[in-house]
Amino acid sequence: MPDSSPVIRSRHAPQRQPLRVAVALLGALLTAGFLVLSSRAATPAPAAAPAAKLPAAKPAATRPADAKSPSAEARAAVAKRVPGVKPEDVRLSVVPGVFEVSRGAEIFYVTADARYVFAGDLYDLDQEENLSDERRRTARAALMSTVPESQMLVFSPKDPKYTVTVFTDIDCGFCRKLHNEMSKYNELGIRVRYMFYPRTGPNTESWDKANAVWCSQNRNDALTRAKRGEDVKAAKCGQTPVERDYEIGRDMAVTGTPAIVLPNGEMVQGYRAAPALLKILQAQVR
Question: Which whole-number Å values give the CA distances from 113 to 13, 80, 217, in the listed order?
Answer without folding.
Answer: 37, 12, 55
